[in-house]
Amino acid sequence: VKQGWVVDFAGLTVRSLTVAKAPGAETVARATVDIPASDSYNTDGSFRNTSPAHAGSAFVVRMRFADKRYRLLSFTVS
Q: Residue range 40-69: average pLDDT?
């Protein structure tokens, strides 16, 4: 939690976070994060694959404030 912002992702470590108004009505949150390795499963519960850990990934969230709360517009992880 930083400045009232939360990233809810089990095992994720947030190294840094900035939140800034963008042109227009958008707000952009940019974080550098460490993403742990994770397993994925098919809808029937069978194992699908393992995603490796990613250290120092860029996590960018674009949002707009409406109806007294932020609405997600998009997010990217790279």
A: 93
Type of residue found at 3:
Q
Name the pTM for this structure.
Answer: 0.71
Closest to 16 in 3D by CA, of 35, 37, 30, 36: 30
Which residues make beta-bridge pairs with 75? Answer: 61
| DSSP letters for 1-35 | -BTTB----TT-EEEEEEEEE-STTEEEEEEEEEE
- Looking at residue 61, what is its pLDDT? 93
Identify the residue whose tokens are 């939360």: 6
Residues whose CB is less than 8 angstroms from the CB of residue 27 and which lie 6 or more positions away in sequence, other chains included: 19, 20, 21, 62, 63, 64, 65, 70
Residue 12 has pLDDT above 70, yes or no: yes
